[in-house]
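Hi Y.,

Following your request, here is the sequence exactly as I used it, all 185 residues.
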Amino acid sequence: MHSLTILVVDDDPVTRNLLQKRLVKENYEIDLAENGVAAVRQLQKKRYDIVLTDLKMPGGVDGIGVLETAKEADIKTEVILITAHASVGNAIEAMKKGASDYLEKPINFDELLMRLQKVRNTKALIKNASDLREAMNVTEQTSAETIQHLELLCADFQARLERIQSILNDTALAPLERVTRALEI
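Below is the corresponding structure, written out as C-alpha coordinates. Let me know if you'd prefer a different format.
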Protein backbone atom coordinates (compact mmCIF):
# COMPACT_ATOMS: atom_id res chain seq x y z
CA MET A 1 0.00 0.00 0.00
CA HIS A 2 1.18 3.54 -0.69
CA SER A 3 2.51 5.75 2.08
CA LEU A 4 -0.36 7.36 3.93
CA THR A 5 -0.78 11.10 3.43
CA ILE A 6 -1.34 13.00 6.64
CA LEU A 7 -2.38 16.60 7.20
CA VAL A 8 -1.12 17.82 10.59
CA VAL A 9 -3.14 20.76 11.92
CA ASP A 10 -1.97 22.56 15.06
CA ASP A 11 -1.60 26.21 15.99
CA ASP A 12 1.55 25.40 18.01
CA PRO A 13 4.57 25.45 15.65
CA VAL A 14 6.65 23.27 18.01
CA THR A 15 3.97 20.54 18.03
CA ARG A 16 3.56 20.76 14.23
CA ASN A 17 7.29 20.47 13.56
CA LEU A 18 7.75 17.68 16.10
CA LEU A 19 4.91 15.70 14.55
CA GLN A 20 6.28 16.31 11.07
CA LYS A 21 9.78 15.11 11.96
CA ARG A 22 8.57 11.97 13.73
CA LEU A 23 6.05 11.04 11.04
CA VAL A 24 8.37 11.68 8.09
CA LYS A 25 10.90 9.44 9.85
CA GLU A 26 8.21 6.72 9.81
CA ASN A 27 7.74 7.22 6.02
CA TYR A 28 4.44 9.08 6.12
CA GLU A 29 3.80 11.90 3.65
CA ILE A 30 3.11 15.00 5.74
CA ASP A 31 1.56 18.39 5.00
CA LEU A 32 1.19 21.04 7.68
CA ALA A 33 -1.49 23.60 8.47
CA GLU A 34 -0.99 26.26 11.14
CA ASN A 35 -4.71 26.60 11.91
CA GLY A 36 -8.17 25.38 10.97
CA VAL A 37 -8.64 27.95 8.20
CA ALA A 38 -5.42 26.83 6.46
CA ALA A 39 -6.46 23.19 6.92
CA VAL A 40 -9.83 23.83 5.28
CA ARG A 41 -8.06 25.41 2.28
CA GLN A 42 -5.74 22.41 1.96
CA LEU A 43 -8.58 19.91 2.31
CA GLN A 44 -10.38 21.59 -0.56
CA LYS A 45 -7.31 21.13 -2.79
CA LYS A 46 -5.92 17.74 -1.81
CA ARG A 47 -7.16 14.38 -0.55
CA TYR A 48 -5.61 13.02 2.65
CA ASP A 49 -5.75 9.56 4.18
CA ILE A 50 -5.53 11.00 7.70
CA VAL A 51 -6.02 14.40 9.29
CA LEU A 52 -4.32 14.79 12.65
CA THR A 53 -5.79 17.94 14.17
CA ASP A 54 -5.75 19.84 17.42
CA LEU A 55 -9.25 20.17 18.81
CA LYS A 56 -8.93 23.71 20.17
CA MET A 57 -7.49 26.32 17.81
CA PRO A 58 -8.03 30.05 17.42
CA GLY A 59 -9.10 31.67 14.17
CA GLY A 60 -12.69 30.64 13.63
CA VAL A 61 -12.21 27.01 12.57
CA ASP A 62 -11.45 24.52 15.33
CA GLY A 63 -10.79 20.78 15.13
CA ILE A 64 -14.52 20.05 14.73
CA GLY A 65 -14.63 22.36 11.71
CA VAL A 66 -11.58 20.61 10.25
CA LEU A 67 -13.26 17.23 10.93
CA GLU A 68 -16.46 18.28 9.17
CA THR A 69 -14.58 19.69 6.17
CA ALA A 70 -12.39 16.57 5.90
CA LYS A 71 -15.44 14.27 5.94
CA GLU A 72 -17.28 16.44 3.40
CA ALA A 73 -14.24 16.38 1.09
CA ASP A 74 -13.78 12.60 1.39
CA ILE A 75 -15.75 10.38 3.74
CA LYS A 76 -12.84 7.90 3.76
CA THR A 77 -10.47 10.43 5.35
CA GLU A 78 -9.70 9.35 8.91
CA VAL A 79 -9.55 12.18 11.46
CA ILE A 80 -7.62 11.84 14.70
CA LEU A 81 -8.10 14.64 17.22
CA ILE A 82 -5.43 15.88 19.59
CA THR A 83 -6.89 17.18 22.82
CA ALA A 84 -5.98 18.34 26.30
CA HIS A 85 -7.47 16.56 29.34
CA ALA A 86 -10.13 19.24 29.74
CA SER A 87 -11.58 18.57 26.31
CA VAL A 88 -11.78 14.75 26.28
CA GLY A 89 -15.58 15.00 26.42
CA ASN A 90 -15.47 17.20 23.33
CA ALA A 91 -13.23 14.66 21.59
CA ILE A 92 -15.74 11.91 22.34
CA GLU A 93 -18.50 14.10 20.89
CA ALA A 94 -16.30 14.62 17.82
CA MET A 95 -15.98 10.85 17.43
CA LYS A 96 -19.76 10.73 17.23
CA LYS A 97 -19.43 13.13 14.27
CA GLY A 98 -17.01 10.84 12.46
CA ALA A 99 -13.58 11.23 14.06
CA SER A 100 -11.82 7.89 14.13
CA ASP A 101 -9.79 8.44 17.29
CA TYR A 102 -8.31 10.97 19.68
CA LEU A 103 -5.04 11.45 21.52
CA GLU A 104 -4.42 13.38 24.68
CA LYS A 105 -1.64 15.93 25.04
CA PRO A 106 1.24 15.54 25.57
CA ILE A 107 1.35 13.17 22.62
CA ASN A 108 2.74 9.71 23.24
CA PHE A 109 4.42 8.93 19.91
CA ASP A 110 4.30 5.17 20.39
CA GLU A 111 0.55 5.44 20.88
CA LEU A 112 0.22 7.74 17.85
CA LEU A 113 2.21 5.36 15.66
CA MET A 114 0.12 2.42 16.87
CA ARG A 115 -3.08 4.27 15.96
CA LEU A 116 -1.71 5.26 12.56
CA GLN A 117 -0.78 1.63 11.95
CA LYS A 118 -4.34 0.66 12.89
CA VAL A 119 -5.65 3.13 10.28
CA ARG A 120 -3.19 1.77 7.69
CA ASN A 121 -4.31 -1.81 8.41
CA THR A 122 -7.98 -0.86 8.25
CA LYS A 123 -7.49 0.93 4.93
CA ALA A 124 -5.57 -2.09 3.58
CA LEU A 125 -8.39 -4.43 4.64
CA ILE A 126 -10.99 -2.16 3.04
CA LYS A 127 -8.96 -2.02 -0.18
CA ASN A 128 -8.53 -5.80 -0.19
CA ALA A 129 -12.26 -6.28 0.38
CA SER A 130 -13.00 -3.83 -2.42
CA ASP A 131 -10.57 -5.64 -4.74
CA LEU A 132 -12.18 -8.97 -3.88
CA ARG A 133 -15.66 -7.56 -4.47
CA GLU A 134 -14.56 -6.25 -7.86
CA ALA A 135 -12.99 -9.61 -8.75
CA MET A 136 -16.20 -11.37 -7.70
CA ASN A 137 -18.25 -9.01 -9.87
CA VAL A 138 -16.00 -9.72 -12.86
CA THR A 139 -16.17 -13.46 -12.16
CA GLU A 140 -19.97 -13.35 -11.85
CA GLN A 141 -20.27 -11.38 -15.09
CA THR A 142 -17.94 -13.77 -16.92
CA SER A 143 -19.78 -16.78 -15.49
CA ALA A 144 -23.14 -15.37 -16.56
CA GLU A 145 -21.84 -14.74 -20.07
CA THR A 146 -20.33 -18.24 -20.25
CA ILE A 147 -23.56 -19.86 -19.03
CA GLN A 148 -25.59 -17.87 -21.55
CA HIS A 149 -23.18 -18.89 -24.34
CA LEU A 150 -23.38 -22.55 -23.27
CA GLU A 151 -27.18 -22.43 -23.15
CA LEU A 152 -27.23 -21.09 -26.73
CA LEU A 153 -24.80 -23.81 -27.85
CA CYS A 154 -26.90 -26.50 -26.17
CA ALA A 155 -30.07 -25.17 -27.81
CA ASP A 156 -28.31 -25.18 -31.19
CA PHE A 157 -27.02 -28.74 -30.65
CA GLN A 158 -30.47 -29.87 -29.52
CA ALA A 159 -32.03 -28.38 -32.68
CA ARG A 160 -29.40 -30.10 -34.85
CA LEU A 161 -29.96 -33.44 -33.12
CA GLU A 162 -33.71 -33.15 -33.68
CA ARG A 163 -33.12 -32.39 -37.39
CA ILE A 164 -30.70 -35.34 -37.65
CA GLN A 165 -33.23 -37.62 -35.95
CA SER A 166 -35.95 -36.38 -38.27
CA ILE A 167 -33.79 -37.04 -41.35
CA LEU A 168 -32.72 -40.48 -40.14
CA ASN A 169 -36.38 -41.41 -39.49
CA ASP A 170 -37.53 -40.15 -42.91
CA THR A 171 -38.22 -43.41 -44.78
CA ALA A 172 -39.01 -41.49 -47.96
CA LEU A 173 -35.26 -40.97 -48.38
CA ALA A 174 -32.82 -43.68 -49.37
CA PRO A 175 -30.63 -44.86 -46.48
CA LEU A 176 -27.44 -43.41 -48.01
CA GLU A 177 -29.22 -40.09 -48.61
CA ARG A 178 -30.35 -39.99 -44.96
CA VAL A 179 -26.82 -40.61 -43.67
CA THR A 180 -25.33 -38.02 -46.06
CA ARG A 181 -27.83 -35.32 -45.00
CA ALA A 182 -27.39 -36.17 -41.32
CA LEU A 183 -23.59 -35.85 -41.65
CA GLU A 184 -23.98 -32.47 -43.34
CA ILE A 185 -25.85 -31.18 -40.28
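Helices lie at 13-25, 36-45, 63-73, 88-96, 109-169, 175-184.

Thanks again,
Q.
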